[in-house]
Specification:
38% of the residues lie in helices and 16% in strands. The protein has ten helices and 15 strands. The protein is globular and about 60 Å long.
Amino acid sequence: MRTIDWAEGSIELIDQTRLPHEVVVLRVESLDHLIDAISRLAVRGAPALGVAGAFGVALLARRHQDLAVVRREAARLRASRPTAVNLAWGVDRALARLDDGPDAVLEEALAIRDDDVLACWSMGLRGADLVREQVPDRPVRIMTICNTGSLAAVERGTALGVVQTLHEQGDLEEVFPVETRPLLQGARLTTWELAQMGAPYRLLVDSAGPFLLARGLADAVLIGADRIAANGDTANKIGSFSLALAARHAGVPFIVVAPESTIDMATKSGDDIEIEDRGSDEVVNVLGTPTAAPGTRTVNPAFDVTPHELITAVVTDRRVVRLDRGETLHVVAPGARCTP
């Protein structure tokens, strides 16, 4: 089952707020419904948001003849998650075909979906090769945060797609996802996906990750990305920076896996990335159960930024950029994507 797809004139997506207890597919037929699904994280993950953005424009183009209305409504969609660059990228790419008619917009959105599937296969293969280069001659132990598997894309995923490839190739010993407070994407979603693929894993509380890296529990850290700045600074789920610091201390590689579309060359550094604050409710409650004193105020950044100096490499669908060797993101390799 794909995380997100187009079916009979509407968007179908897995409601990730209902996992791991039940698999519910939402049928999205309006922009307001899509924005709600994005805002409450029923659909999330940078690549999936890019596809959602393009499909949202396709919905608009089929329902409104006035192109000014489509563009105005698309701007609302574009702004619904400010940190993840892929949402805006998907909206803009679909809007570029608006003058050609609704069929052309849908054609572009479907192309984005199909490109994402191929990109995830490519990232998995490139990332697995890099991990084996970093940790030769034995099965590897991987630590990861949040959810970067098929639920974050259309199929397979980014960092967890690398894990899946290693598992399929017989080179994975164990995975250590951290729970990912406050919404537990690691505990709810990543463990579900690891169980689906039959990969061995043990779940960690977030605060245990850095200490256990220092104790040699994992051979590498793999994360995804919501935006990668031109200098390599990477915005990802809150807690990624802590793992990067611990990985540097432990001397293990810290690898970012994301499609080329997540690289934002218009953003010079991580200082320029807008970090979404999602308010107090997610912090003072755990899955709807209050856990803090009434009236407790919070700071709730959904993401943090890992400086490029702490990143070993960025793996995309087209290249591996070794930031630790002084390579930069400025030259895009023209290599063809791999196919499954």
